[in-house]
Amino acid sequence: METPSRFQPQERTLLRSLLHSGLPFYLWVAGLGGLFLWGIRAYTVQLQEGLAATGMRDYVSWGLYITNFVFFIGISHVGALMSAILRISGAAWRRPVTRMAEAITFSSLFFGALMPIVDLGRPDRILHLLFFPRIQSPIVWDFVCIFTYLIGSTIFLYLPMIPDLALLRDERSQVRGWRHKLYSILALGWRGTPDQRGSLERAMSLMAVLIIPIAVSVHTVVSWIFGMTLRPGWNSTIFGPYFVMGALVSGAASVVVAMAAFRRFYHLEEYITLKHFRNMALLVLALDLIYIYFNIAEYLTVGYKMEEAERGLLYTLVGGEYALAFWLVQIGGLLLPALLFILPEVGAVERIRRVPLLRPRPLAAAASISLAAMVLLVTQGPTQTGVDFGSLGSSVSWAVALLLALLVISTLPALRAHRILAYVLGAGLIVIQAWLKRYLIIVPTLLNPYLPIQDPRIEWTTYIPTWVEWSITLGAMAGFALLYTLFSKLFPIVSIWETREEEPVPAIAHQARQREVEA
Amino acid sequence: MPERRTVSRRQFLKLSALAAGAAALGRGALARLGQTVGATAAQIGAFLPAFRADAQTLGRLIGQDGRELQPVPPSPRSAPQRRKWVMVIDLARCDGCGKCTEACTAMHMVPFGQEWIKVYRMKDNAAAGAYWFPRPCMQCDNPPCVAVCPVDATFKREDGIVLIDQDRCIGCRYCMAACPYSARSFNWAEPPHTAAELARSYSMELNIPHRKGVVEKCVFCPGLLREGQLPACAAGCPMGAIYVGDELEDTVTNSWGETARFSELVHLGGGYRYLEELGTEPRVYYLPHRDHQYPMPETAGQIGQQRG
């Protein structure tokens, strides 16, 4: 039965993004597919040579793979945040972006769960986890929680999609062939009857409540992989909430990036407006500030006491080998995004344009020349090794910081004019920070054991990831993006029916319950 | 449905399948029993009525003819001996010669680069003198490595020894991250093999032959202990610095043949366990390096100053 299209103009745009793909899309998919295959190629090398193909050795026995694992699992938290927490709290603005978040959860959980398997010395024995599990081990907790979350979030992704799938199934003029068959099967005979709606609402409400503790448990037990050891740097009581917050902020930030990408490439400007970016930015900002608080709590309590075993690690982070990465995370990945979210809102930034020194172009030119001069000076001078705060106190690093701060300030008027750009920049920095932060939690800690590292094999006493590890990391990231992209081509990335919904959702559930009472 | 059909087709099929299965099982069990009993079938009659037990035969199975019944060959996972192995290392005697490491490496054919007992150069603070510090596996009574193993590959035996089953290990290296003593090594590549090593059948009491992608460590030489000998490192120490013995017997012995009361040695000698504050309850005790008569290391590492 041919029915006329029931789609509104903005929904037709969405439908077009689903059914029609241009050359850029195919190039993007081909590029991601190529990177993903390259990662698989690198893994075959690792299978042949063993983990010797990586830069990991006895001291740093976990590296990029476990970093990726924690990163992906962290990103995956956004599904529960957006769909469950915002659903329960009745934030109606979430509707057009919910599915983007849930699809991120699905894709990142998939690749997150793969990473520990890539890290195994004997992947052929992976089934031992099923045959001989010891429930005392946090790895088994992880296995159980991640598997539960994967299933739960897949259900949670699928349930609200059913009415949309039925819409697509009934759109016979455009949706034909295998797509029609697929949508027919997956729509489960949805007709939108009050009974069906009631069941769906009940199922979704139930899932929303169930998924929150599952999601919290997932990142808590991921953090407990570290928190249950005696290592200085991991032996911390706040690791559970600290990691859950880190997960939420990185996941919410990744949604902001995804929103911008879909808005631009799928022309969803009518669905995703400045209002949505603003609300998401506020959410990310709040989470970012809480995460900054956790960072202060974690490092200040250690740094204040300077306990002997923790001291070495702290020195490595704030003033030693990993100082650059550490401060990039703290300043560039946590503080700067907060400023990028807040400062463009301040009306006074318009006046920056009037300060001649702070005009972007002259400042950028001056800054790059001075930066180059400083880099030259630093590399020419005597290189500092060992543990001290020298690099922190040097006037060069302060000058660099000042210049960078001036550069940021000079861009503020432009960012005020392009708020979405500011939000996406901030969110992007947070996502990068999230990865780097996990690396800093894992690698420097392993380089600071209780017993001093005294090994004649110098290459064993540090960690430099090999091309195999980088390729697999890149392949996993590309695979994640590929899975996410393909999902958006198979299913509408914006929930059509929920966005249409005029009434708040609980009212429908209430009506359904009323009917039950009457019947 | 007609009443007279008491057995439906489905039920019939189920019953047949069950019967066939039972028949197959029964045949297998009978055959196995026959194999087990075999030539001794005649003696079984004499054994069957009862077993004898008295004060002299505590913990053993004695047949009616007075002969001890051989139990199932002990699995390396369960140590049948009523023992609690313990090690005492006298740091005042250690001159850092590294003979313990050499002996261990030879005994266990340890892959190149690994040191199951490693001699560290230590210094407790800026004012104190440096000293040598041999570190075997501490065989902790509250072992963090065993706690975190997801597949029960590493385990604690009743005789105090922590072993690794390399047939079980999945190579996740969580135990290495959890061990505060850096006592565990991983075979990142296929370890270089010798013909002698490959000729041995695998034993988790030796960690031989070595395998790729699994964790290894010091195992306290359970085979040697069972035969009443010192572990390789203790036997190989020319200074008699490493004592090994049974805590229940309260005796420890070193390579010089000196035997001491374990409790006295540790009690009077100021014995301590490394990183006691972590609560791992190590089975390796150290006697402080007081009045040492041998050259001490010139450079040394200290906690908080890593990679010395």
Supply the key terms.
heterodimer; A: 519 residues; mainly alpha; globular; B: 308 residues; 5-stranded mixed β-sheet; 9 helices
Shape label of chain B: globular
The proportion of strand residues of chain B reads 5-15%
Structural class, judged by helices and strands of chain B?
Answer: alpha+beta
* Percent range for β-strand residues of chain A: under 5%
Q: Quick one: how many beta strands of chain B?
A: 11
Distance between the termini of chain B: 87 Å
The total strand number of chain A stands at: 0
Largest sheet of chain B, in brief, is: 5 strands, mixed
Helical content class of chain B? 25-40%
Assembly context of the chains: heterodimer
Short recap of the structure:
With 519 residues, chain A is mainly alpha-helical. Chain A has 21 helices and no strands. Chain B is of the alpha+beta class.
Could you characterize the architecture of this molecule?
- The complex is a heterodimer of chains A (519) and B (308).
- Chain A has helices spanning 9-19, 23-49, 64-75, 78-88, 95-119, 128-131, 138-158, 162-170, 177-186, 194-227, 239-265, 274-305, 308-318, 323-342, 360-380, 390-393, 395-417, 419-446, 467-490, 496-500, 505-518.
- The longest helix of chain A has 34 residues, at 194-227.
- Chain A has 519 residues and is mainly alpha-helical.
- Helix content of chain A is 72%, strand content 0%.
- Mean pLDDT of chain B is 82; it is low at 36-42, 44-50 and 303-308.
- Chain B is globular.
- In chain B, a hairpin with a 5-residue loop joins β9 (251-253) and β10.
- With 308 residues, chain B is an alpha+beta fold.
- The termini of chain B are far apart.
- Chain B has helices at 9-37, 41-47, 99-108, 144-148, 174-178, 195-199, 222-226, 232-236, 262-268; strands at residues 85-90, 118-122, 131-135, 154-156, 162-164, 184-186, 215-217, 242-246, 251-253, 259-261, 284-287.
- A 5-stranded mixed beta sheet of chain B has the order 10-9-8-1-11.
- Chain B is 25% helix and 14% strand.
- At the A-B interface, α7 and α13 of A face β2, α4, α5 and β6 of B.
